[in-house]
């Protein structure tokens, strides 16, 4: 293992937060709570990211995903990113001014990443790539470093989310990025190592939907060299360790519970098929919130 001390630097962090889609029941989105959370995320200074795993994108029909896009655009203007499963959905996002994130899915399983991304670049002027661990979705795939180097050469691809949940491959990507294309966004998706921002990663996280206000506060501390960054980062990481324990996809139920504790949603409902946490989850999350000074 090559230790990453060469990468540490104080810098402004670009934070993108995968917004939970609150539910009233297993089939009905709570649109008022969704609108409020998108607005809250944007007001904190994070870029709202919708129609991703945190927003149940794999489980939504086309009409609901279009509604998510329309409502997000109305709230934020063009400062948002959104999951897209194919070129058609990517065009829908760009038509609204957002930046598509190309989400691995059953539609793209087994496809060559470079050929696919080159085709996407002929249809939209900008998009974000996505490496996803199979822990999150069976269609997920982590690229080898040679593939990552090729992705960097696709001009329309402005960044890539890395969700292996491992530090070392992300450090390797940072070194390649720094050498080959410094403006490229290495967006960590490692909710178990949110301090990857110390090494030059930006982020697109599901954990930040629990507390966009506190993530923004942490990021500002890092930008200004405030040592309070470390204490707040540790408390947020404690929340992440609880919420993203196996089975990892159940973090979305943890998010709904935590947002209900914060008074931001009325229900911890999730769509059918989403893994649920045990009855004592709320007590664990309450302790996490206490450490963060939320109550």
Explain this structure to me?
The protein is α/β, with parallel strands linked by helices. The chain has ten helices and eight strands. It has helices at 31-44, 62-76, 87-95, 113-121, 145-152, 167-180, 212-224, 228-243, 251-261, 281-291, and strands spanning 15-18, 47-50, 81-84, 99-102, 127-132, 157-163, 185-188, 202-205. Strands 4-3-2-1-8-7-6-5 form an eight-stranded parallel β-sheet. The protein is globular.
In short:
The chain is α/β, with parallel strands linked by helices and 295 residues long. The chain has helices at residues 31-44, 62-76, 87-95, 113-121, 145-152, 167-180, 212-224, 228-243, 251-261, 281-291, and strands at 15-18, 47-50, 81-84, 99-102, 127-132, 157-163, 185-188, 202-205. β1, α1 and β2 form a beta-alpha-beta unit.
List strands and helices in order, with pairings.
Elements: E1 15-18, H1 31-44, E2 47-50, H2 62-76, E3 81-84, H3 87-95, E4 99-102, H4 113-121, E5 127-132, H5 145-152, E6 157-163, H6 167-180, E7 185-188, E8 202-205, H7 212-224, H8 228-243, H9 251-261, H10 281-291
Parallel strand pairs: 1-2, 1-8, 2-3, 3-4, 5-6, 6-7, 7-8
């Amino acid at each position: 293992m090559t230790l990453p001390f060469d990468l540490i630097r104080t810098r402004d962090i670009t934070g993108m937060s995968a917004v939970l889609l609150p539910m009233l029941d297993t089939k009905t989105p709570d649109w008022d709570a969704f609108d409020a959370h998108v607005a809250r995320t944007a007001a904190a200074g994070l870029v709202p990211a919708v129609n991703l795993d945190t927003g149940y994108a794999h489980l939504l029909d086309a009409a609901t995903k279009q509604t998510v896009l329309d409502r997000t655009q109305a709230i934020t203007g063009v400062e948002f990113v959104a999951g897209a499963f194919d070129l058609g959905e990517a065009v829908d996002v760009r038509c609204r001014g957002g930046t598509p994130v190309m989400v691995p899915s059953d539609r793209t399983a087994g496809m060559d990443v470079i050929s696919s991304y080159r085709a996407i670049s002929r249809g939209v002027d900008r998009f974000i790539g996505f490496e996803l661990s199979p822990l999150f979705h069976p269609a997920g795939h982590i690229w080898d470093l040679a593939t990552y180097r090729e992705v960097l050469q696709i001009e329309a691809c402005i960044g890539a989310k890395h969700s292996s949940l491992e530090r070392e491959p992300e450090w390797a990507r940072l070194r390649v990025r720094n050498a080959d294309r410094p403006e490229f966004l290495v967006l960590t998706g490692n909710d178990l190592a949110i301090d990857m921002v110390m090494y030059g990663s930006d982020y697109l996280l599901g954990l930040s939907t629990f507390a966009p206000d506190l993530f923004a506060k942490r990021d500002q501390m890092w930008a200004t060299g405030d040592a309070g960054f470390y204490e707040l980062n540790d408390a947020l990481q404690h929340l992440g360790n609880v919420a993203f324990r196996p089975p990892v996809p159940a973090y979305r139920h943890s998010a709904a519970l935590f947002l209900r504790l914060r008074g931001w949603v009325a229900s911890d409902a999730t769509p059918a098929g989403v893994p649920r946490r045990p009855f004592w989850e709320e007590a664990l999350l309450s302790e996490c919130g206490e450490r963060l000074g939320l109550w």
